[in-house]
UniProtKB/TrEMBL annotation:
UniProt KW keywords: Amino-acid biosynthesis, Lyase, Methionine biosynthesis, Pyridoxal phosphate
Stated name of the protein: cysteine-S-conjugate beta-lyase
Gene Ontology terms: biological process: methionine biosynthetic process; transsulfuration
Enzyme class: lyase
Listed CDD domains: CGS_like (cd00614)
UniProt KW Transferase keyword: no
Cofactor: pyridoxal 5'-phosphate
Its EC number(s): 4.4.1.13
SUPFAM superfamilies in UniProt: PLP-dependent transferases
Top-level taxonomic group: Bacteria
PANTHER family in UniProt: CYSTATHIONINE BETA-LYASE, TRANS-SULFURATION ENZYME FAMILY MEMBER
Amino acid sequence: MGFGTHLVHYDVAPDDPNQPNVTPIYQTATFEQDHVDVGGRFEYSRSGNPTRKVLEDHIAALESGTHGFAFASGMAAITCVCRLLSAGDEILADWDLYGGAARLFGRVLDRAGVRLNISDALDLDRFRAAITPATKLVYIESPTNPLLRVLDLRAVAQLAHERGLLVAVDSSAMTPYLQRPLELGVDIVIHSATKYLSGHSDVTAGIVVVKDAELAKRIYFLQNAEGNALAPFECFLLLRGLKTLKLRMDAQQKNAIAVAEYLRTQPAVASVGYPGFGALVTARLGSFERAKQFAEALKLFKIAVSFGSVTSGISLPATMSHASVPPEQMKTREIPRDLLRISVGIEDIDDLLADLAEQLALLG
Ligand SMILES: Cc1ncc(COP(=O)(O)O)c(C=O)c1O
């Protein structure tokens, strides 16, 4: 079965005698049990809910994993993975990270005794040398956020496994349509499903997928113990959005390539970043003031902190998504103040290019 077929063909309502074609929303907190000493298939929606179970199984299969977990946000998903660690353990991460992850590592987990060690995952020898006896988890994004550096997932997984470490990849910018980290040896895939998986900027959600039953047990324990699973209605919205993932990604990627190619021809644009896949493009305009003026003048690219919606968006990471990076981490990383991150949507490309051209002309 091809990926596009798989997106829409799966068991949408296991064991449901009514055979609905769409997964019903099980808007219930509790499920009746026949016995006080034997649980049923579902008991309590924090622990498990039929709508969530369909979503979790579906996304697990799409990622070539065996167990999926849906959370209230991407940050809740990242937090759950980090809870695998204990005080004294260390996370080794690439330096280019989403601002919220940087904040979690540097401002929350540090208080629980979990330390962050930052290195450069593009330089594999340097990254390997940064592993210490305390390192338990290697955490990376690819492409990275906001600089869109593409990391070698297979090589990073291999070097981590040589030392018995777990590897987690935030694959939000790619989705399982464009990248399946578990097939490359990675242990844990994380998504902010708020982005392309849901695709319409109407859900906040997070996903974790693994392919190891023991690891899945530990993640499930944490999901239930901490109580941050995704609510049934959000699961339904995410299931609905997922059906068009391939259509949206194809359209958005095509537009993104055209946007990147256009921007590259423009003398007013100092540099353009596009990793070759997906629908995120970066552009540097030479100064914060020029970047701000351009972003605020655009009509079709809405200023929005997130990415991955069918509507085009633009953000300035230094003052938006990455404003929360703790100052001490800024010593080892750079978030250029003239860097714009463009999330390309499904609009007609001529309209998008005309908007860009019009506002670039105003910059001079
Ligand atoms: C790459 C990446 N990972 C994780 C997150 C966090 O996800 P959420 O906002 O759904 O909590 C974001 C949010 O912007 C992100 O860009």
